[in-house]
């Protein structure tokens, strides 16, 4: 009997056995095929899967993103990710998609290279499916050696499989020789859907992790997950949660309102045919859209790009839309917005760069700050470094990459020439890709050109801004300058091979400390600038915005000077690291002083006072007067109180602001007249009769003093901003008042729908101010 006949006989027995021995059938079929002298077959070595998975995927965050993309393709609306490296060895990814049947698990998931996404390109929710190679599932091998998958579809029972990827890491072992266990799980844990745990979905559990996750890994993953779908599009039907035991991060969704801080927005649209690109511009100076059309060849010529390889003036990459948002990263950018400069800068630090989105899913690594090569894939930083001209030199002006947040929108079906690279990160750098890159670069140039046209309006806006700019805003700008200098110092230190490692570490530690402090200072000052009630409170307690700024600006000047001195010490031919350390230490001291001022101010305007609640007005007045009484007693001023218990629903800070401002004015008035010094404080319940039938319940705060009263010539200007009659004779009659007190009082009274009047007190002969406010009850719904 020949070798061929022997194998045929064994194969027949394997087929006829009950049940058929599938492993023997596969093995004998393969051996039989080898006996054919004219026709042979490929045989797949088990290690092939290792090359496709573990070896070909750049890092574990890329591998995890592959799993999230699979969830997106499965029409999931929520994906839960858990990464535990320190408390336990576990990675879990669960979604509420449509799941898989037992047949799909065996005949599709286990079939390497097969993807139903090539046949059915759209999901039931209308999503264009992202994976078509059929190897994304092997990415689990990059994360860990043990895989357990559980899945539940609408029309089948709960099913699962278990894989030990290390079984494939054996030389000379055939892929078909390795068994994958199919089992029936007792349970599955899936994200909620429509308010309750989903009835369908997939849960993946990975153990024996290939490498530990670091704090930086988690931060990068968080960035990549938050940018997986474009923040521009406000995608609501796909949410991701991330829980970990390495570096817990706040689960803060991107606020699309940050885009409102952009100075210029530009959108480029190419329909896929012809040679014309349509540009739409919007800027905060004009407040209207501007539309411009340009030919592809003219765009390339205008931006200095090579046009020698143009083919029929067509863009080979297909139709696309490009959106760019340009930011100044200045305090003026967040004026009248519901977030501060610190939050805007955090948004820009995490999202700066131009990303590529295909079918609403991001294509790494383009535009990711955490990616060494992908962040500035257009080379904007190098271009800026070679010619750092400002906007005033319009011909050479260029943006820096951290000022741009942008996206390129493409699709598989309309951008066929833009193919994925084999490593599942990036696109194949074909002619179509170079056309895409040229179009994006051309759009950046168009934005720069448009901005230079706005120079007259930009200069006019800056001129107006300078005249209105507060001392607090100047402080924030100074802090931004300090941050840039610190970054420059850090680069200088780290790149200098002549400086010893321990000195580098000391400088790095000091810079980190100072950078953290200045960030806190900026956040505090920005909050003070944005809170209307806080500013009123600051003016009221004598730390007006002017005084606060004066005290702070001196320390900021010292801070900035020390940082500059440190920078100079390190820029010499022989860097003086010790001198730089001393200067940075001085800067830390100055910044700490600034932070202390901010902390003091904030304690005087505590958050609970800025919330509306039921309060006893008489109790608030009594507390404030008792707090101020020692200062008045030292000036020989007698305080008399006659207070009723009046209950209402209001802001405690408003009442304190009204009271202290009026008492401060009364203090000044009482000390400006000889004789007995007296201030009376009265609180009464008083109804206001608006008409014969309408009576409004309310209360009145009356404060009178023994001073000279309000002069007739000043009565009409009393509530004007910055008008003050307070003078200091010892300073040559120089004004010591800010002129804000009664302006703040009048503003709050109007805000509370009250009334303010003043006259001459019949008993004390000085000024008498009366504030009437309506009583308010808490509305219960």
From TrEMBL:
Domain annotation Histidine kinase: ranges: 547-777
Catalytic activity as recorded in UniProt: ATP + protein L-histidine = ADP + protein N-phospho-L-histidine
A single GO BP: phosphorelay signal transduction system
PROSITE patterns: HIS_KIN
Keyword set includes S-adenosyl-L-methionine: no
EC nos: 2.7.13.3
SMART domains, per the entry: HATPase_c
InterPro entries named in the record: HATPase_C_sf (IPR036890), HATPase_dom (IPR003594), His_kinase_dom (IPR005467), Sig_transdc_His_kin-like_C (IPR004358)
Keywords, ordered alphabetically: ATP-binding, Kinase, Nucleotide-binding, Transferase, Two-component regulatory system
Pfam families: HATPase_c (PF02518), HATPase_c_3 (PF13589)
A GO term, aspect molecular function: ATP binding
Protein name as it appears in the record: histidine kinase
Organism: Subsaximicrobium wynnwilliamsii
